[in-house]
Structure formats: C-alpha cells, structure tokens
Design brief:
Gyrase A, domain 2, four-stranded parallel sheet, 21 helices, three-stranded antiparallel sheet, binds arginine, Isoleucyl-tRNA Synthetase, Domain 1, alpha/beta, 10% strand, single chain, Rossmann fold, 583 residues
C-alpha cells in the first residue's frame, strides 16, 4: 500500500500544480493526508479535501471535483469525488498482482523500508538481577526488547543488544554470608540459580526476623540485624577487591547466566553484550567529577544529589552519604560509555513502567551535563503482569519463574501434539515452538502499557486470537504450497473480494512495521498478524485453491498463498516467534 500511496501522492501533487499552481502542497503532505476509508465501498484510499481548503482557497467539494478529473493511473478502477472526498477505487487484479510481485521481489526483506541504514541503535533489555529470580515480570522487557531489536535490524539499523545484568550491589554481600552459613557447592552446581535464590530468600527472611526481634515488641524502636551488618561488611570486602569474595561473586554470576541462557535459547535471543552493572564501577568517578565541576551536585543530608525542582521531579541521587554510588550514577556512566563505544543514534531502554521516573531523572541529568546526545535516549515502559489474577512478591520467593511458565506451556501443548506426532522428538520440537510462542504472542497482543493478566488456557487455545492459531494458519499455508508443488504466479484472472482483501492486508505490512518501530510497539505487528491470518483463513475456506478448475485463477490463488506464507513467517519472526511448518 505504501508504494501505491506514494505514487498517488505524487500524482495528486502534479494534478494540484496543474490545476491550482506551483509549490502549494508537497507530495509528503499529501501522503500524510491520504486515508484508508473504514468502509471500502467508499473507496480503498481517500483524500479528505477539507484539509486542502485553506491553501487552495476552494471548497472541499470544488477541490475533489477538480482533482477527480485529473488523477489517472492503471491501478485505479475509479476516482470519484463524493462530498468533498476524493475516493480511489483500486482494481483488484492489477493491485494484487503488484503486491504479490512486491512480496516475491522483497523476499525476506519484504516489509522493510530500510530507514535505518547507516544508523546505530543500542537496546538495553531483559537485564535480570543475578541471584534473584528471573520471573514473569521480566517477560515484558525480554520480548518487547528483543522484538524492538529485530524490528530495527529489519529496518536496516545496526543494532547492539545489551543485557545490562544486575551483577553488582548489596545483594552479593547477603549472598556471600548466606552461602558461608548454609550453602553447599555441589547443591548449587546441580540446582543452579534456584539454589541461589533459596539462599537469598533465606537470608532476607533471617535479617527481617532479627530486625523484628531487635525491636522487642516496639514497632517504633530502631531495627538491627547482625546478619545485615555482616552482609554489608562482605559487600564492602567485595568492593575492595577481596579475591575470595570476587571468586564467589564470579561464580554466582556464571551460575545465573547459565540458567538465563536456557530461556533466551527458547526465545531465540542472543545478546551482543553482557556488560552488566559491575562493569561501570571504574567509569562512574569521572562522571561524578564532571557533575561536581559543573556545579550540578548539591549536598543533601550528606548525600550528593542533582536538584530537579525546576523540572518538577524529585532529586536524582548520585552518591549516598557513605560515598557509594547508586542506580542512576551507573546508568549515566553506562550511557556515556555506550555513546563513546557505539556512537548510537538511539539508545533504547525497556523496563517496567515503575522505573519511568528513574529514567526521566537521569536523562535530564545527562542533558544538564551538556551531552549533546541526551535526546537520543528513549525509555520504553510497559505495564505489569499477573497470572490468573495473582500479583508477584519477589522478596518472599513467591514468584512464577519464566522458565516454569514456558515449561508448563510446552508440556500442555505436548499432550495435544503427541496424538498427531507420536515420535517423541518431533512432538517436543513442535511443542516447544508452539508453547513458547503461545506465551509470547499472548503477551505481545496488548499495547505494552496495559496491565496483563496471564491466563494459560486462553494463551494456548487453538481457536481464538492466539499464537497457536496463527502458527496453525502458517502451517496451513505451508501445507497448501507443499501440495501445490509450486509457488504459483499471478495471472490476469479476475479476482474477487476475498482475494482483494487479502492482497490489501499483505500490502499494509511495510506500514505496520514502520508504525511498530516509530511507536516502540511490537503489538502493532501482533495485531497485524491476526488480521492477515483472518483474511487468509476466510479466503482459504471460501475460495478453492488447489481444486480450482480455472488454471489461471488457481495460479493466482497459489501465488497469494505464497505471499501470505512469506509475510506471516517474517512477521512472526519479528515478534520472537517461530513458524513450524507442521503442527
Ligand atoms: N536490572 C534492572 C531490574 O531488574 C533493570 C535494568 C534496566 N536497565 C537499565 N539500564 N537501568 O530492575
């Protein structure tokens, strides 16, 4: 559609020049004015002429009528003026032919506008905290982040995916104490991150118990915990470079990463960098120095802060009163490092909406520091996830892990798949693609800011707007093409309304991709996939494809099936989904 819209806006610009004079409206402006009428009996494309009234100094009705007589092109079967609208009716056969040929020519790249060539985007996403559970709250950052990476890559950007793992902080002091008290090396080697989480939960509970006990029944009395003190001491030793603690820390990190990798593999995610928070330890002082030299730091209760009153935000904490650095300090140092290293045109951070203020604050600090790239920083927030209505509680260990969520989806799909695919290896391969895909699709079906209540039955259902349903539709296109033994070719056989609708939806793909990128919203692609699947299934059920007697028409229908197959595969890939050929 994009191509036709472009062409139409150029034709319109010419017509306006001829009728009304030069330099009045540009093709770009006209492009933005063109609409898809909700009711296609009015036309397939329309120009609301009231938008031109002022510049052209005529009534919308006069403008529409003047232009209707002037604009002609082979793809339009009629151009009519109706109540101040200029309506374009597309001729289905020519149009479908062009779209199918665009898809074939574009191949894997069909849908890309290559707007990002020569530009670099760094994306910071997933970024779990080591030795804390990798739970369903991370689903958003992981799949939105990766989908945005794939979308940008598709559009020609060179992308750097960064897993900014939370591998530094006081939790390591706690973990070291817990490990020394209760830990067991073999158990952790076998049980992985789950064992670390158990230790972490245990020490947190123990610290809380000590604190409560120290208050002697008086809730207003000061709290104290020996284990808390011991944890801070171990962290201080770690920060000072104590070799024993460093070795433990390295081990905790690698055990955790090994575990995350399994989930990433199921999702087909690979990162380009794993530089986590610890990497920036020696890069913060220079930024703190710069802030101080610029007079941006104020001392508040012993802490060093940047005052953001003028921008209606609370202060941004840079150093605690004991001189230790904070989350914003590290983010500032990391952003400077990434700009120096990658010269990014855009740096995208995907986190829960709970961190929106944090990003707004340190983005402002970066601006105040005079970094001219401050406006290339983008925070992409998303809403909360609950499962069957239950919210998460991280500290108590009452969480649903991402890997368990996927495992459950996979095993449920396997039960159904086994009937059709008794070979266990084949069954599990399909079940993994469909199970993981179901979770991802369900999640990415909503606008990212919406809070989501995850219901497994709904996600796994084969009838409904689900992952399994669209993967099944894809498999259906594969089966038709396999039986056809050819990818078909568009002929001049006249096409009906269903084929035309399908062709129009295929033609919308490039616009949807661009919209998903511009709005940082993968759900635009998810919803597009549902539209395309629905249009294809209607066509499949009502038009004979392989049994069509008219050979020319059959060929066109196979070609439309091929184009659908191609676009579904690309679109599914862009939202981190696999497309199995058989289900
Ligand atoms: N590790 C953090 C968390 O789990 C997310 C990090 C997001 N990225 C960043 N550059 N701050 O909450």
């Amino acid at each position: 559609m994009l191509t036709l819209k472009k062409k139409t806006s150029e034709l319109l610009a010419d017509a306006i020049t001829q009728k009304f004079g030069e330099g009045l409206v540009s093709p770009d402006e006209l492009f933005r004015m063109l609409e898809y009428p909700p009711d296609s009996t009015m036309g397939d494309l329309a120009l609301p002429c009231f938008r031109l009234s002022r510049v052209l100094r005529r009534s919308p009705v006069q403008i529409a009528e003047a232009l209707a007589a002037k604009v002609k092109c082979a793809e339009f079967s009629a151009v009519t003026a109706v109540n101040g609208y200029l309506n374009f009716k597309i001729s289905p056969t020519d149009f479908a032919k062009r779209v199918a040929s665009d898809v074939t020519k574009g191949g894997e790249k069909y849908g890309s506008s290559m707007r990002g060539v020569g530009k670099t985007v760094v994306l910071d996403y997933s970024s779990p905290n080591v030795a804390k559970p990798f739970h369903i709250g991370h689903l958003g950052t992981t799949v939105i982040g990766h989908s945005l990476k794939l979308l940008h890559e598709f559009d020609g950007y060179s992308c750097v995916g960064i897993n900014y793992i939370g591998d530094w902080g006081t939790q390591f002091g706690k973990l070291i104490v817990a490990y020394k008290l209760w830990g067991n090396r073999e158990q952790i080697e076998k049980g992985g991150v789950d064992e670390l989480v158990k230790l972490y939960v245990r020490i947190n509970n123990a610290i809380k118990d000590e604190e409560i006990a120290s208050q002697n029944g008086n809730p207003d009395a000061p709290k104290h915990s020996d284990l808390g003190d011991a944890s801070r001491a171990e962290f201080a030793r770690l920060e000072a470079g104590d070799e024993k603690n460093l070795a433990l820390w390295r081990w905790f990190v690698s055990v955790s990463l090994l575990e995350y990798e399994k989930t990433y593999k199921q999702l087909g995610i690979e990162f380009d960098s794993y530089k986590g928070e610890s990497f920036y330890t020696d890069k913060m002082p220079a930024q703190v120095e710069k802030l101080r030299n610029m007079g941006l730091l104020e001392i508040d209760d012993g802490a060093s802060i940047v005052n953001l009153d003028k921008w209606n935000m609370p202060v941004c904490l840079i150093l605690k009163s004991d001189g230790t650095t904070l989350y914003p300090t590290r983010d500032i140092a990391a952003a400077v490092y990434r700009q120096d290293t990658y010269k990014f045109d855009k740096a995208i951070y995907v986190t829960s909406a709970a961190q929106t203020l944090h990003f707004a604050q340190w983005f402002k600090v970066v601006e105040l520091m005079g970094y001219e790239w401050y406006d290339r920083l983008v925070h992409v927030p998303y809403g909360t996830v609950s499962i069957n209505g239950a919210k998460l509680a991280t500290r108590t260990g009452n969480v649903i892990l991402l890997k368990d969520l996927f495992a459950e989806a996979i095993s449920r799909v396997a039960e159904i798949t086994r009937e059709k695919h008794p070979d266990e290896a084949e069954c599990m391969e399909i079940a993994e693609k469909v199970g993981v895909g179901a979770v991802v699709f369900y999640y990415l079906s909503n606008n990212r800011m919406r809070d989501i209540n995850f219901i497994m039955e709904d996600a796994l259902s084969f009838d409904g707007n689900t992952g399994p349903y669209v993967q099944y539709t894809y498999a259906r296109t594969c089966s038709v093409l396999e039986r056809a033994g050819t990818t078909g070719e568009m002929t001049d056989a006249p096409l009906g309304e269903l084929e035309f609708t399908l062709a129009k939806t295929l033609a919308l793909f490039p616009e949807k991709v661009a919209q998903a990128i511009d709005e940082y919203e993968p759900s635009v692609v998810t919803r597009y996939i549902l539209d395309l699947a629905a249009d294809f299934n209607r066509f499949y059920h009502e038009c004979k494809i392989l049994s069509c007697e008219d050979e020319a028409l059959k060929s066109s229908r196979i070609a439309l099936t091929s184009a659908t197959n191609r676009v579904l595969k690309t679109a599914l890939r862009l939202i981190c989904m696999q497309s199995p050929e058989k289900i």
